[in-house]
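User: structure tokens for Dihydrolipoyl dehydrogenase, please.
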Amino acid sequence: MKYDIIVIGSGPGGYISAVRASQLGKKVAIIEKYSTLGGTCLNVGCIPSKALLDSSHHYYDAVHHFEEHGISVEKPSFDFSKMVERKENVVTTTTGGIKYLMDKNNIDVYEGLGSFEDATHVKITKSDGSSEVIEGTNTIIATGSKPSTLPFISLDKERVITSTEALKLKEVPKHLLVIGGGVIGLELGSVYKRLGADVTVIEYAPKITPTMDADVSKELTKVLKKQGMKFNVSTGVTSVERNGDEVVVKANNKKGEEVTFTGDYCLVAVGRKAYTEGLGLEKAGVKVNERGQVDVNDHLQTNISNIYAIGDVVKGAMLAHKAEEEGVVVAEYLAGEKPHIDYNLIPGIVYTWPEVAAVGKTEQELKDAKIDYKSGKFSMRALGRSRASGDIDGFVKVLADKNTDEILGVHMVGARVADLIMEAAVAMEYRASAEDLARICHGHPTYSEAVKEAAKAAWDGKPLNA
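Assistant: Done. Predicted tokens:
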């Protein structure tokens, strides 16, 4: 079989790229080595983790907040197996939706491991050992990433686990040790903390969410500590040992002293790395960089002109929505269109509660670039909507150019900021000023009023409700 475009990998980047290419008249095939479509995000990442986050959030509210709303219930309890079953049902429905999209858009789906025979031929090795070869004028590599570890850690995937296993535990840990205070560690730590586990986070950097704005990290640390999570920053892990049902983690703290942590499970959440195993890149002549990522130019084109790569397998933030945008860009580029992607405007989100969201530059990045800026900040506590719901933690911060008033970055901690951040992204896409955002009439009472107020604070220093 010959195709205009072969896509290897069916995660958010791969399947969206395939759909867009088909919409633009291309004959498309997609190859997926697993029996379900959707990649890490839909199967063992974004979707199942959000399902467990929502279930655990409902339980946490029942235990801690129902009474203040005048709701009396018997002592709440939970059935963890039912939570997991619900999560699996959400995953099954969502991955089934991808299969529907493939059928709807006449995309041929091949199940098996895709590997290059040369620059235009891809071999598909099936689970029974049989194989076939298909030909593509262009190929898009969308094989994603897998969890990273540290060289001295042996992952047994039972007690010393990655995010994949953390989503499939049969029990709630008594004490979950989390190595890594980034998005994955904090989200999964939150799930099990809400369900009664002790959670200790060990982070090498001086703050959690180390790539985010310092004010965000500080606020998130405060509210998660209030929920009972423990944090050890500036702490470098030196060993992880399992003894039966116990895991012992040794580390050096910021004073250089050895400290020991003991738990029944240890989640290793130190990031992810590009997944290129078995692709046969050398047969096609495709180059990878020093980090093992597929090397691409501004058009996401590899050094082999008819082969492209997108998502976690290339440089940049490892985010499902970044992969989707890149998939669309490549599909449109191959169809002769002139798409663009602004990497500065890809939002970053942490689905703890309160949520965290950001787009654009942090204060430190502006300082490092020697850009004169002004900052406006508004507390969620001052919002009528936040007080009505009881979600008073957090803030919105708007950073704007000191001379032009153009919005350069927006950082949020609070209820539903994962959705709210897109107001900032849209404003920045159109290069709005802080004054522009401050002068837009926002519905009352809404969480979005915090954006208006923070923008006004950045523009003239005079928010109306603070």
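User: Anything notable?

Assistant: The chain has a mean pLDDT of 98.
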